[in-house]
Amino acid sequence: MRRILRGALLPALVFLLWEAGSRAGLLPMDTFSRPSDIATALAGGFADGSIPLATWQTIQAALSGFAVAAAAGVLVGAILGLSPPLERTVGPSIEALRPIPAVALTPLTLLLFGFGLRMEAGIVAFACVWPILLVTVAAVRGIEPRLLEVAQTLRLGFASRLRKIILPAALGRIVVGLRVAVSISLIVAVTVEIVMNPRGLGYGMIIAQQSLKPDLMYAQLLWLGLLGWGLNALLTRAFGQWHGSFGPGVQP
Amino acid sequence: MRESPATVLSLEKVCVAFGGRPVLSDISFDVGAGEFLCVVGPSGCGKTTLIRLLAGLLAPSAGEILFQGRRLAGTGRDRAIVFQDYSKALLPWRTVAGNIALSLEACGIADPERSERIGALLAKMRLEHAAAQFPSQLSGGMQQRVQIARCLAQQPTLLLMDEPFGALDAITRQELQDEIARLVAENRTTVVFITHDLEEAIYLGDRVIVLGTNPGRIAEMIAVEIPRPREQLETREDRRFLAHRHRLFGLLQGHRA
Amino acid sequence: MSLARLRGLGAVLFAAALLLLWQLLADRQFISPVFFPSPSRTLAELYRQVVQGDLWRPLEATAYRMFYGWALASLAGVALGAAIGFSRTARDYLDPLLEFMRPLPASAVIPAAVLFFGFSNTMTVAVIAFGAVWPVLLGSLHGFVSIEPQLADVSAALRLSRLQSFVKIAVPNALPDILAGTRVSLAISLILAVVTEMQASQTGLGQNILLAQRSFRSPELYAGVVTLGIMGFAINHGIVLLERRLLRWRGAA
Questions:
Q1: Residue A30 pLDDT > 50
Q2: In which band, very low, low, confident or very high, does the pLDDT at A27 lie, cut at 50, 70 and 90?
Q3: By C-alpha distance, which of B212, B86, B196 is closest to B145?
Q4: CB-based burial of residue A203 (10 Å sphere; 0-12 exposed, 13-18 middle, 19+ buried)?
Q5: Which residues of C touch A180 (CB under 8 A)?
Q6: Distance of alpha carbon A177 from its chain centroid, rounded?
Q7: Hey, are the CB atoms on C111 and A209 less than 8 Å from each other?
Q8: Residue B193, strand partner residues
Q9: Is A224 within 8 Å of C104 when comparing Cβ atoms?
């Protein structure tokens, strides 16, 4: 109980000082806005449907990109994981493509698809496919060889083998990669919206900032923060704590 | 209990309880200067608790501990403790020489004396060829030697050893037993040595204390009285050795039941 | 020829085959050259940029912002990680705030940063620092929190002062995690540098790509992407080499 109170102290303090400072004229309204106005803007955004719409657009792009990346990453990862020679041949080419920042491809996908969902989902897919691919390769490589021999003796076709033995055996570790990718998908989607794509919450914030409506901008930022936190909490509940690049970690 | 001017350690009715549960009860004994005291007992009898107590990592719930005539309060550099899990007690990012240096740094000893002492210890523990290697590159026996070297670097009055050879193979164990016996005899260090191995206790010790379990109590204290230097084959076949062994074996069995 | 070299050759051949395919498709105009310039044109453009010196100013600008923001983030991240790692109370107070800010896409703070700093270098560095601090902070926190209990005992037995204990035990122990966090942090810094450039129309590799797209000069676009890829690869590899040097002791384990 004490921990909850302590944790709530700082945010509460921040809000109080923010509100008070703004009303006292110490904090300029055009940059800082104030919590009460932000709350109003948030409520308004929900009431007129603009925030739910933007949220849906962002989630749609993130999810579709993720789905494509998951399908491609797991499939290719499984194939490469099963065949070390193939993996060694293709590996360096993957290593060459992987360091390209996904956002750098924004202008390229713009050329290809124009503005809209496909372009954003495409970039999300590019960003998400690498962690999934790499984790899948490692997971498949780590499968107990006996299980693979069982598949051989039963003379299962490739698709059957994949479905019945390989994927279930490697699932635990693959899921870790998927979890990483889900977090990435949201981040990349919002980034693309901020940089260029006129869709979603990212774009909403840019518009709010440009039309001198800081309260709406902060409202959307707050909402995005809550979404991210909620998503993270959900994933942690389902799959355990994750500390960035360290995989499932220990609770500090 | 003999109280001579050369008593290094003195425990009087010491008790340790964790959250109401007694772990050690009514422990009283003395250790004289230069003496090698072994403590044996079945698992869970509180041996590790006792050694942590003597190191100052724990405080007793009742009773008194006197070290060199003064009340024991917390840790001190004049007491060195060798842990059983050597891999976790060495700094993995420092070389062998670096690990030994840690004690000297703590004691505030600077170069050139520091390098001299490290060199001497490396020679004494036969670690010269491994001076620049990291713990991960060494065998278990060598890692334990490094830990012992680090403790000896403190030039401690009291050397505490918590089942130091328990995780090693039999041959390495015997080598290290003889090495430790030789080293402490040279420096006249007082030693309290914890082990679950009865024969090891009798082989190494001047006196052996047997701890009972639940809670840990002194069940028996014997004086070994076999002359030094001792030898792995001969000593273990000595009449007195076998007699002690019989006696204490029965005691340990009884307490395990 | 040894097996290892044979495999290496296989990898090179595969990459070469991909490039060849790309070249053929582009030459035969199966895909519009506007969208997919051939590798030869891309490389020619890249070569031109290097030789004529067009590459260096944007590269330098991007790199400068990236490193500056990353350096700030690292300092803050390690310091905060140490502070939080050692103080249970600090953790209680700060945890909810950190848990809220951590999953926030760093680019999402760009509009707010623009509000405060306009389209300036300060804005860029602030955004980069905000995004890059998390991996280092988390790594540092993890490293400082997970000290082997035996080592704590050793430190107590040797009566090391708090400072000595921190410098000789806590920091080296945390170093592997801090370095791992740094690697991720640099990657994020690069991405955010590019993003903020595109947003703020500042000189840099990101802006190059954007301008190339707007004027439909695809060889330039691709050349820019390739440059960024090389940059990302070089940085990552640099840290890997650093890790190998500093963390030699992990070897046999």
A1: yes
A2: confident
A3: B86
A4: buried
A5: none
A6: 12
A7: yes
A8: B38, B161
A9: yes
Between chains, do B80 and C157 touch, taking CB under 8 Å as contact? Answer: yes
Residues of C with Cβ-Cβ distance to B154 under 8 angstroms: 158
CATH class of the domain defined by B7-78+160-256: alpha beta
Phi and psi for B219 in degrees, rounded to 5?
-90, -35
Cβ–Cβ below 8 Å for C157 and B81:
yes
DSSP string, A183-223: HHHHHHHHHHHHHT-S-HHHHHHHHHHHTT-HHHHHHHHHH
CATH of residue C74's domain is: 1.10.3720.10
Contact A101 C194 (CB under 8 A): yes
Is residue A148 situated within a structural domain? yes
Which residues on chain A are in Cβ contact (under 8 Å) with C91?
252
Chains in contact with A, where contact requires at least 3 CB pairs less than 8 Å apart: C
Q: Are residues C20 and C120 in the same domain?
A: no
Q: Is C144 in the same domain as C25?
A: no
Nearest CA in chain A to C146: A252
Q: Each residue of C77-87: pLDDT tens digit?
A: 999 999 888 88
Q: Could you list the residue range(s) of the whole structural domain that residue C109 is in? A: 39-250
A149 Cα distance to chain centroid? 37
State the helix-helix crossing angle for A167-195 and A50-82, rounded to 10 degrees. 140
Would you list the domain boundaries of chain B? 7-78+160-256, 94-155
The answer to whether B79 faces chain C, any CB pair under 8 Å, is yes
For the whole model, what pTM was predicted?
0.80
Contact C164 B106 (CB under 8 A): yes
**Count of structural domains within chain A:** 1
CA distance B155 to B144: 17
Q: Vertex B61, ends B55 and B63: CA angle to 5°?
A: 80
For chain A, give percent helix, strand, coil, nearest 5.
Answer: 85, 0, 15
C→B contacts (Cβ < 8 Å), by residue, are 148-151, 153-154, 156-160, 164, 168-169, 172-173, 175, 247-253
- Interface residue A105 vs chain C (CB under 8 A): yes
Chain centroid to CA A28: how far?
34
Specify the number of domains making up chain C: 2
Query: What residues of C are in contact with residue B57 (Cβ under 8 Å)?
Result: 153, 156-157
Query: Domain for residue A243, yes or no?
Result: no
Neighbour order of strands in the sheet with B70-71: B21-32, B7-18, B62-67, B70-71
Q: Are residues C1 and C64 in the same domain?
A: no
Asked, for residue A249, whether it belongs to a domain, the answer is no
According to the model, what pLDDT value does residue B5 have?
Answer: 55
Q: Within B188-231, where are the H helices?
A: 198-204
Q: Would residue A204 count as lying in a domain? A: yes
Question: Could you tell me if A196 and A205 are in contact, meaning their C-beta atoms sit under 8 angstroms apart?
Answer: no
Cβ–Cβ contact C197 with A under 8 A: no
User: Would the pLDDT of C130 be above 60?
Assistant: yes
**Domain region containing A125:** 48-238
Looking at the structure, do residues C169 and C192 belong to the same domain, yes or no? yes
Q: How far apart are CA C55 and CA B243, in angstroms?
A: 88
CB B9 within 8 A of CB B54: yes
Do C143 and C245 share a domain, yes or no? yes
What contacts B201, CB < 8 A, 6 or more positions away?
A: B38, B39, B40, B193, B195, B208, B248
Instruction: State whether C47 and C24 are in the same domain.
Output: no
Predicted local confidence at residue C252, as pLDDT: 47
Closest Cα to residue A102, out of C130, C126, C232, C14? C232
pLDDT digit string, tens, across residues C24-47: 877 777 667 777 788 888 888 888
